[in-house]
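hiii so um. not sure if this is the right channel but i have a protein structure encoded as tokens and i wanna go backwards to a sequence. like what aa goes where. can anyone help
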């Protein structure tokens, strides 16, 4: 069903996520669509004056260079209300102010989101109301199932947007376009030709003052359980007949239902590390344990690596290694597809040093196909060449692409309830093995590539 949202109600509007990610994305979206009439209502527990509210939105919009008539109209009509959004009467008051069909964006701590869903249980939401929920969605399989059940009492699954901005339209479509719009890739996209797939998201940034959230989540939950499993499911899906929400999300769900920790052993198939003091491009970072707000007893990892397998015909035996960490010396955001060795190299050509490798870079979206060719000089010598291409920037910031889906009532890019639960199920054995101390928490200096003895990926 296509809906037209006329009010965006942001709960937790005075928080970091709303001002740094959501509002700039909204500004960009409205700049592109000056014809869109959208009222913005902010609600939060902070006391924010109207003047301050306008100043905050204006600053967030300026970050996205937002302008035009839709922005002007929004600034003229927007309001902020101090409210405890976990109280039914206050939610009713906020909803009464919404014009037309609202989208409610929960930019709230997860525990508060659950309470708001309780508070909404006795409220008749306007037909077509869209609910957008930030990650993390639950804290394990059971709590994700409970939250799904709570949400199901409020609206239909198609009206629920479990946000994962890694599923921004351009990244998803670039992956699907590369694979399905070219005859040369799809026939090779299987275990007969692909040796391994590594999905790496290494950041140079450290904690950046986010201990309150990160020290309880860690790299596994923050990145692998959510974003990287989603990316893997798009990479590995069967060809969908259409790009509609049902086909895309079914195809992702099928991959994730077949995904397990490789060999059934979290001990052998996962690693975790934590940064110590070091320097990144001249910037000194303290030991993670000395970062403000960090509790050593949480035993939080800042680097996680897990190898999965997808138990189906297409991917049997192919290791999928997902890795992400903070405070690393080199920023890497890529899917690395390593092809199998050729079955026979004609005698006379020099040995190959490496097989063919396809790198699909995420944000900015680019690709590089590393091929073996007869290079310059001796024609029997095999050398290496990279075919590089840029996909170009998407129309919007990743959050803008997600927000557009929410405002149009299109959940294609959001995570379906069964999938959100399944992603917790997939990582549960790893979380348990780590909690039970079966996998050592290894140190690595900030600015390095990770613990010294970890084999490099891709
Ligand atoms: P913050 O703590 O900065 O913001 C949460 C906001 O919710 C605050 O303004 C807080 O007000 C408000 N709030 C809390 N309880 C209530 C209540 N009962 N009634 C009304 N308002 C309330 O968190 P973030 O903005 O960082 O994160 C929000 C969500 O977004 C989280 O789920 C997070 O995981 C997710 N997220 C955040 C990202 C980020 O970079 N920040 C990135 C991706 C996802 P007060 O401070 O006064 O309590």
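sure thing!! here u go:
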């Amino acid at each position: 069903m296509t809906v037209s949202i006329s009010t965006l109600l942001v709960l937790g509007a005075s928080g970091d996520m709303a001002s740094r990610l959501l509002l700039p994305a909204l500004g960009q979206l409205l700049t592109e669509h000056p014809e869109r009439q959208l009222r913005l209502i902010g609600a939060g527990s902070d006391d924010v004056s109207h003047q301050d509210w306008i100043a905050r939105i204006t600053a967030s919009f300026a970050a996205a260079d937002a302008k035009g008539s839709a922005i002007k109209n929004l600034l003229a009509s927007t309001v902020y209300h101090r409210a405890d959004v976990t109280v039914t009467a206050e939610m009713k008051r906020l909803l009464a102010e919404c014009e037309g069909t609202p989208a409610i964006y929960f930019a709230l701590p997860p525990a508060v989101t659950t309470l708001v869903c309780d508070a909404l249980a006795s409220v008749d939401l306007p037909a077509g109301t869209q609910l957008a929920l930030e990650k993390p969605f639950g804290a394990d399989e059971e709590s994700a199932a409970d939250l799904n059940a709570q949400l199901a009492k409020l609206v239909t699954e198609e009206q629920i947007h479990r946000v994962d901005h890694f599923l921004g339209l351009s990244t998803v479509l670039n992956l699907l376009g590369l694979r399905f719009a070219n005859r040369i890739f799809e026939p090779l996209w299987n275990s007969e030709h692909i040796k391994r797939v590594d999905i790496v998201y290494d950041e140079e940034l450290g904690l950046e003052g986010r201990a309150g959230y990160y020290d309880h989540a860690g790299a596994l939950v923050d990145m692998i359980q959510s974003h990287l499993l989603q990316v893997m499911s798009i990479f590995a899906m069967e060809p969908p007949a259409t790009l509609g929400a049902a086909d895309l999300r079914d195809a992702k769900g099928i991959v994730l239902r077949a995904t397990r920790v490789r060999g059934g052993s979290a001990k052998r198939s996962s690693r975790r590390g934590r940064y110590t003091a070091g320097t990144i491009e001249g910037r000194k970072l303290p030991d993670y344990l000395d970062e403000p707000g960090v509790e050593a007893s949480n035993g939080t990892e800042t680097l996680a690596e897990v190898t999965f397998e997808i138990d189906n015909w297409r991917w049997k035996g192919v290791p999928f290694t997902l890795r992400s960490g903070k405070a690393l010396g080199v920023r890497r955001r890529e899917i690395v597809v390593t092809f199998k060795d050729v079955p026979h190299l004609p005698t006379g050509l020099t040995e190959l040093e490496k097989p063919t490798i396809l790198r699909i870079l995420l944000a900015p979206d680019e690709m590089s196909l590393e091929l073996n060719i007869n290079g310059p000089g001796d024609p029997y010598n095999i050398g290496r060449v990279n075919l590089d291409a840029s996909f170009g920037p998407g129309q919007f910031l990743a959050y803008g692409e997600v927000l557009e889906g929410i405002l149009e009532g299109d959940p294609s890019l959001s995570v379906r309830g069964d999938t959100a639960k399944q992603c917790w199920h997939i990582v549960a054995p790893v979380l348990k093995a780590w909690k039970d101390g079966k996998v050592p928490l290894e140190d690595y200096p900030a600015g390095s590539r990770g613990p010294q003895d970890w084999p490099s990926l891709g």
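oh and The chain has a mean pLDDT of 95.
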